[in-house]
Design a protein that fits this description.
The chain is α/β, with parallel strands linked by helices and 410 residues long. It has helices at residues 11-20, 49-54, 73-86, 101-106, 131-149, 155-168, 176-184, 188-193, 198-217, 252-267, 284-287, 290-301, 318-321, 327-340, 351-361, 365-373, 396-402, 406-409, and strands at residues 34-39, 43-47, 63-66, 90-95, 112-113, 238-242, 276-280, 308-314, 343-346, 378-383, 386-392. The chain is globular, with a radius of gyration of 22 Å. Bound molecules: adenosine-5'-diphosphate and magnesium ion (MG).
């Protein structure tokens, strides 16, 4: 285990950043919120996207956390969420590596482990026939099938999906298997609404039906095509979705999409609204899929309406910029993240990644160099147009919760 002093960044970082401070610094902007650590140029550093958004200091509460492996991204988040829990903020964490268990335990919560053959079920479809629910369900089914078909749905297919979703909504809470049924055997009324025959409509929706059916009968069977497990709710300070059983499976993007769709329906239910963080750690594992990325971008935009601050964790912007079958869609996602996230927490990066980040965010040459030299546990915070070089200070309790090196040093 290293000593605390080894987290101190080399002194030239602050000197470089000081020289680069062409941007204005508003004195009060980082004085509210949970304490994070030390701004190496200005003293203590606090941050709270909710109050800063309410005060008009941020135009959106979303955050992106970037940086190489082992730089302190997850450690920062764990301490940030723990400190926010003390402020009454809830969190929903998508945890592809299964590393948030100790934090959950500290908050008295058991992670929800989603895996094939497991006991947890999440129905990603919303109940009801309101335009919002039907649109959400149609968009979800389209994203799931576009992901597995690895292409966009044709207009005929997309229309068949919307009609099937509307048919399935007539029962109680629809399941994915009800949508499959409605696609395979469309109603005469659905066909008539398009001035076509049931035979033609069956043909239009058949490929989509077969793909969706695989989700109900294949690898992912049982997890998303059944009523949600009793007692699974957003009550309590934190929900951790442990996906470690699926990290390297092709299905992980679909899984996260279904889980976030379920979350979206829970967030609009009547009842007290908590301010909530939705954290996607290791987001590269799902955002390489173009269809999933597109869907995700839509749900990211709904954050403000739902009282949610999204936090997306990536190694590098290129994770979303170049991966995926559809380059332009992935590029649009990267651009969307930049447009829709006002707060960036950037840990150390390689030369190439730092120059990519600097281009995307309009960082100065000095800031770009800082990103290549910054020490573990220190990050360049970009809030709106302002920069802060912040050393994150973890308490001994938080260090124990965040220790992902345990397996390496044992
Ligand atoms: N600010 C910090 N102070 C002390 N230790 C830290 C700090 N940030 C990270 N660490 C330690 O470094 C290791 C790797 O950090 P982690 O957050 O898991 O990396 P990442 O998520 O960037 O891959 C962890 O064991 C963690 O305890
Ligand atoms: Mg991590």
């Amino acid at each position: 285990m290293s000593t605390a002093s080894s987290w101190l960044p080399p002194v030239h970082e602050s000197t470089l950043l000081g020289a680069a401070m062409a941007v204005p610094v508003a004195a009060g902007v980082v004085r509210s919120g949970v304490p994070i650590g030390h701004d190496l140029l200005r003293g203590s550093f606090c941050f709270d996207p909710f109050t800063q958004y309410a005060a008009g200091e941020l135009s959106n509460p979303n955050m992106v956390v970037l940086g190489q492996i082992g730089r302190g991204k997850s450690a920062f988040l764990k301490s940030f969420l723990l400190r926010n829990a003390a402020w009454g903020r809830a969190a929903f964490v998508v945890d592809p590596k299964g590393e948030y268990g100790p934090l959950a335990a500290a908050l008295g919560v058991t992670p929800v482990a989603l895996r094939p053959g497991g006991t947890i079920r999440l129905n990603p479809l919303g109940a009801g026939t309101t335009p919002e629910v039907l649109t959400a369900n149609g968009t979800l089914v389209a994203a799931l099938t576009e992901s597995t078909l690895r292409r966009r749905l044709s207009p005929r297919e997309r229309t068949a999906v919307d009609l099937a979703v509307a048919t399935a909504a007539r029962g109680s809470t629809p399941l994915l298997s009800n949508v499959v049924e409605a696609l395979l055997i469309p109603s005469p009324a659905a066909a008539a609404s398009l001035a076509t025959t049931t035979r033609q409509l069956t043909e239009d929706g058949r490929d989509v039906a077969l793909e969706l059916r695989r989700m109900c009968t294949g690898d992912l069977a049982g997890m998303f095509d059944a009523p949600t497990t009793d007692g699974l709710s957003l009550d309590g300070p934190m929900v951790v979705l442990d996906l470690s059983g699926l990290l390297h499976s092709d299905g992980v993007g679909l899984l996260v999409t279904c889980a976030l769709a379920w979350l979206g329906h829970q967030l609009v239910r009547p009842g007290p609204r908590l301010q909530r963080y939705v954290v996607l750690d290791e987001a590269w594992s799902i955002l390489g899929d173009a269809a999933v990325s597109r869907w995700f971008q839509g749900s990211w935009k709904l954050a403000r309406a739902r009282g949610v601050a999204n936090i997306c964790v990536l190694h590098r912007l290129a994770d979303v910029d170049t991966l995926g079958a559809e380059g332009p869609a992935a590029k649009a996602l990267a651009a969307g993240l930049v447009a829709d996230s006002e707060t960036w927490v950037i840990f150390g990066q390689s030369h190439d990644d730092a120059s990519h980040t600097a281009r995307a965010l309009g960082l100065s040459g000095v800031e770009e160099r800082i990103l290549q030299r910054v020490a573990k546990g220190t990050a360049l915070w970009r809030i709106g147009g302002m920069s802060h070089l912040v050393r994150h200070q973890l308490t001994p309790v938080e260090l124990a919760l965040a220790n992902t090196d345990a397996a390496m040093v044992r």
